[in-house]
Amino acid sequence: MAEKKSEWYKSLGREIGKNSGKFVSNKVFGDGHSTPYRVKIQREKSKEQVKIKELEQEAELGRINLEEKKLKQIEKKELEEKNSNKLQDLIDRAVLDGELSSKEKIAIFQVAIELNLSFEEIQTVLQSEIYKINNTKFSDLEEFIDNINYLNVKINILKLKKQETKLAVKVCEREKKALIISLTNPKSKEEFFKFLDFASREIKDKSFSNIIKGNFSNKLSKLWFNKIEEIKSEAILDFEYDSKELVKINRLVDKASDTLGNNVKKSRNITITASISIFLTIIFIIISSVNSVNKSQQEKIVLNNQITSIKQSLKTNSFIDAKNTISKIYENKADSYPNLILILKNKFKNAIESKNNDISTKVESLSESILGDDAMRLKCQFQFIKLNNKLLELEKLLDKRRYTGVKRGLQKLVWQKVFYDDVIGEEYEESICDKFIYSKRSINMQLPQKYRTRIDHPFSIFK
Questions:
Q1: Eight-state DSSP code of residue 188
Q2: Fewer beta carbons under 10 A from the terminal one: N or C of the chain?
Q3: Residue-range domain boundaries for the chain
Q4: Total-model pTM
């Protein structure tokens, strides 16, 4: 029992000494001698610090974005205040003489539209300013004319800004149509002439360029003219006994009628001209395509005759005639002519197989007259025929068991690359070289083990 107690005290002393040592070590040396648990705590602290930094960065970005928004709002407000002051200044100067001219109103409308003020809002302001001075109100006709001018200014501003122009312009034109249709006919003599003068000026003489660009509304012009005709019919009754006034009315109506007629004629002439141009273009395309087909057919006939002529010349060994004809084929363009390559390849093959070196040399010289990739392809074919013919000779030695000669022959037969830096050409050459390597390895495998040689593929180490 006493021994067990002494052991327990000893273990307690060791544990206390160990933990005390760790405590002193951590205080003196820091985390350099800390336990893995303390390392884990340190890592967790560093992760928390990273998260805190990220949150601080996000908060900073949010603060910057908020400040930018505030600055934009301030700038917008300052601009609105500036435009508002400009508008008020324009109105104050315009009403000094107690009247508002059309030019002054148009200038005011331009600033009002920039401030997104509706016609009703700006008209109310103008009406109150005029009323303060001379206790008068705008007549219905004056308000109608102002509304039309406001819409015209708005259309011009939209076209300059190019902001949803087509849709916005259509909306403005619909509003103009509604105003024209709903306008009550003038009653007084002064208003008759005021409307006729304004309406005749609204039917503007459009240039050809405006009509082509689509800046010409024939329907709107006709609507103006119909309103003019309607008011004219009433004016004739009202001014039946005033011939001078009737002459003025007829002059304004005739002016509007002539302008509208000219615009319609211009539009019709442009449509006819465009239709004729399209028709002539189609005919030209058809004729050109027919001529192109005929020309290509003629070229094919000429080419076939030339290749037939080369074939006949090679049969009779007339190499000079064959060379001249080949030069003519490649004279204009270096296209590919597979039939020509096949004819020369077969002629060369027959010469090699019959061991007629003179003919084979002359056929090779013909390849100098060939241009482009055809010349390179022909060199590949000639090389394959030569190497393949030598492999046939090695097969004869193999039958005679002259293994050493066969091995030396295989080592000498090496494919010389023709195409360089040409992916398509190299693929073509590799396909021909594959046949040669296959035949070469086939002979090599028939040799006894000790006579076999290493045969590499010139295009790939994996083949």
A1: S
A2: N
A3: 79-280, 317-451
A4: 0.38
